[in-house]
Request: fold
Amino acid sequence: MTTAAAPDRVPGLRVSVGVLLACAMLAAALGMGLRQTSGLFLAPMTAAHAWTASGFAFAIALQVLVNGITQPICGQVADRIGGRTVLMAGAALQAVAVAGMALSSSLAAFTFFAGIVMGVAVSAAGMPVVMASLTRLLPESMRSRATGLGTAGSSFGQFLVVPLAGLGIEGFGWQAALLGVAAASLLIIPLALPLNDAPAPAPAAGTAGAVGDGSAREALGAALRDTTFWCLFFGFFVCGMHVSFMSVHLPGFVASCHLPLAVGAGAISLIGLFNVAGSLISGELTGRWKRRELLVTIYAGRGVVIAAFMFAEKTTATVLVFSAAMGLLWLSTVPPTVALCARNFGTRWLATIFGLVFLGHQIGGFTGAFLGGLVLDRTGSYDLMWTISILAAAFAALIHLPVRDGPKPAPAVATA
Reply:
């Protein structure tokens, strides 16, 4: 079965679709790639400052939590003024945050810059704003593929940027590498220029709009009363827990298995590389398959892969195979989740509603990052955390079964 080629121009779009997608992918690549380097700095920074692993992990976990709390706020601003301005401001704030992390001499200062300032920056310059802008700018027939491409771009950034940061740490030291990350954050600003999505006008009084086309309060109220929203919320909680735990702690886990530092950096990089394929596949399947069943399959697959890795001998080969398999499932949850939000709640307030769903992701991310460090400090290993990850994957697969894969039916109107 073949599909029609996507048009190069869309009515009302000021740039070609190719330019729009390329800039969105590169912005997402830089944003995600630069943020995924945190795990590489855990060992050298804790050694240099005599900080505990849980202290460093708490700062990164706080970043994830602040990101989740402020994401709906940044989404609301993006829904009202467009994503471009929000992305630019977030990129500038991220540069300030990372530079502050590099220059911090105390754990309290590091926690402020890495946890609070960076958390707000990630919300403004993060993937939800990019995905919502693409969804608004493109017709429905192109959205799933575009979301898959944007997610793949973020994964490619993880594949490309993390090894470069590792080389920077080895060649110039962790502080110079962090300052390089701060400078690279500013490159997002010119890439955000084509994302000039103008908010759709509110429907006239007395007219029936699409789901979610009313005021922000009406759209949010409808979403918060909907079982589908909460299923997506708690499913994304598990996604965030998995992603943050492995992003922050997988290099340290690899080191605890007496494998070289390059294997830990390579594991994070390989996850990013294979997630390019996983995101593209997910984007295509989101447009062709039931999104509910796709999410159930992804989360169940994660549980199987983590269980197999937990019981396998930890060698360079098994770490890399595990990373490749997890990469296919890493951010492949994003296209179907965004599509379900758009189909059930409309696109007018998509950045706000998906931002609330993303809050669940980031609460899970806080849990995964901090709990991983706490488990390591208390037990001396990550075994308990791997077990929790398997159980969480099973929970996520089950909780998506009641999800409604389409817009909520409009109430019947009584006639005289």
Q: What stands out?
A: The mean pLDDT is 82. DSSP finds 17 helices and no strands in the chain. The two ends are 48 Å apart (CA to CA). Residues 140-172 form the longest helix (33 residues).
